[in-house]
Each structure stands twice: as C-alpha cells, then as structure tokens.
Amino acid sequence: MIRLLIHDAAWRSISTAFGSHRDQVLPLVMDDAGVITADGEVVANGASQADIAWLSGGLYYSGAMRAFALELVKATELKWVQSAAAGFDHPLFKGIVERGARLSTSHAHSEPIADYVLASVLDHFQRGPDRRAAQARGEWEVLMFKEMWESRWLIVGFGSIGQAVARRAQAFGARITGVRRNMTPHPLAERLVTLADLADVLPTADVVVLTAPLNDATRGIADARFFAAMKPGSVLVNVGRGALVNEADLLAALDRGAPEHAVLDVFQTEPLASDSPFWSHAQVRVTAHTASETATVDERNVALFLDNLGRYVRGEPLLNLVDRAEVLGL
After folding, report:
1. Active site residues
2. Given 3.40.50.2000, 3.30.1780.10, 3.40.50.720, 3.40.50.980, which CATH number is that of 110-286?
3. Closest CA to 128 of 143, 139, 138, 116
4. Of the candidates 130, 202, 251, 296, which lies 20 to 30 Å from 24 by C-alpha distance?
C-alpha cells in the first residue's frame, strides 16, 4: 500500500475523484492542527513512513505547513513529492531530493502570471495612469503611447512562465530573446542567450522580465551593473523571486530612468514593509506576490496531482519532474 501524506483541504478537493486509487493508496490526512488520520483513525507517527506527499497550494498558507514539513523531514521512506509551486529554491526541497526522493513541480501558475505581466506592461505602454487621471479631471486629452509591435523583450528565465509570457507578447508583434542554459532553438524566441550574455542584450531590450529561479547564479543578478546596461525608458518586471533584484540599486536606477518603470510582484522581504520607498515611488507598480492568484490555478494543480498520482501508481514517467542537479545546485 502506498502511503500518501496530504493536507485535509487538499484531500477534500480530490476525495470524490480518488476512487480508482483506494485499493493502492492510503491517504494520511493532516488537519490544520497537525493531527494525522487514516480512514478516520488518528495515526501516531505514521506520516514519517509516507511514501509520497502532495504540497498542495492551500497547504502553503495553512496552519499545517510547519507540521507537514517536519513530517516530510522525518519520512525515511519518501519516494516522491508533488509541489503546487513552480519554484524549488526552498531548503525543504533540497533536503527532500538529497534523501533520494523525486520532486515534481507545477506550471499551473504560468498562465495567470503571464497575463499579469502583459497587462502591467500594456498599462504602462498605453499610459494607463495618465488616461485615468485625465478622465477623472474630465479633460479631453490626446496622449501618445508606445506600441507593442516590434518592441524587444528580454525574458530572463525561459521556462514555463517565461514561455507563457513570450507567447502572449509575440502575439502582439514583440520580438523575444530568452535567457536560459539550453540553447536548443525555441519557436517563441527569435534568439536564446545565456546569463553570461546579459550585458550584450540588455541595452536593446524595451522590456526585461525576470522569471528565473533563485540560485547561486541568479541571486542579486539585477544589480547596479545590470541596470546600467538597461535601455533608457525600458520596463523591468519581476515575477520570479525578490532576491533576484538588488533593491537599493533598482531605486537608484529608476531615478536615472533606466529602467523607466518597474513592475514588482515579489520582494526580498515579504510582506513589503509599510515604510518601503517602493510603495510611493511614481515609477513603480507594487503588488503583493499575487500575480497568480486565480481560482483556476487550484483546479489545474488538482488535475496535475491526480494525473501524476495515476502515473506513479502505474510506474509511468511523472510530469514536471525537476532535475536533481538543479535542485541541489550542481
């Protein structure tokens, strides 16, 4: 019998669709108090023998997260963990993979995050704040704006999220350069480069989007040198990790006009302090790490977990399996 560690809310979301697995998978259900039950009976220390686990979306924001993580640390028989998150830079994931378990992540966030990026950049290009201010004043004001057509986008981190952004921007006639390690040509990018090439491509980019994972190579990558190479009047969007950006350097760069505008959904410290200068900066749009907050993300995560659970039970390849070397930074 395969023992599955799962949060109570996640179990309720899949219980009706779980019928085909009941003879092979035993759910170990943890409530918000950290109490684990199996078939309605309290289990003492049973989760430490879990074979698989689902780090569902709601779990990350629940009272059970700490207890759940501790059970994963103790789970000596753990073989596979499905995460509802796209990133894997948290030390918990490294510990899981170091002990030999496989980790699969989710791309469910890619579509809404890409929507957020395009909406934010379009609003800036179209001078949305100026248009709304003119309407509020009751003034018939003619405002010139910037077209997306032939704009150049540099997407740093050309994975699932970066490609979803590229697909939308390309539909508007934008020209895409993707930054990743794999140089195999991709239909959504007219050019692919590595991190080592950033200094050459930053000066040509109208929009720079950070969607890269956080690791030793990317931590603080957007620093004074990065901003000094950016094109005057350009836009920076960070939907990756707050620690990708040196925030003091960004504030100084904004005052120089390169970038001209920053869209920030993530920060080094969250929640963002109430006295942070980003809140009131005229060239900054702040959101509270909510670029992917839609109801359909949960629906896609449920569908992905059930699909992968079926694959695991049948011994088939798992979807979105993360390379062990990437998690460990090798």
Report:
1. 241, 270, 289
2. 3.40.50.720
3. 143
4. 296
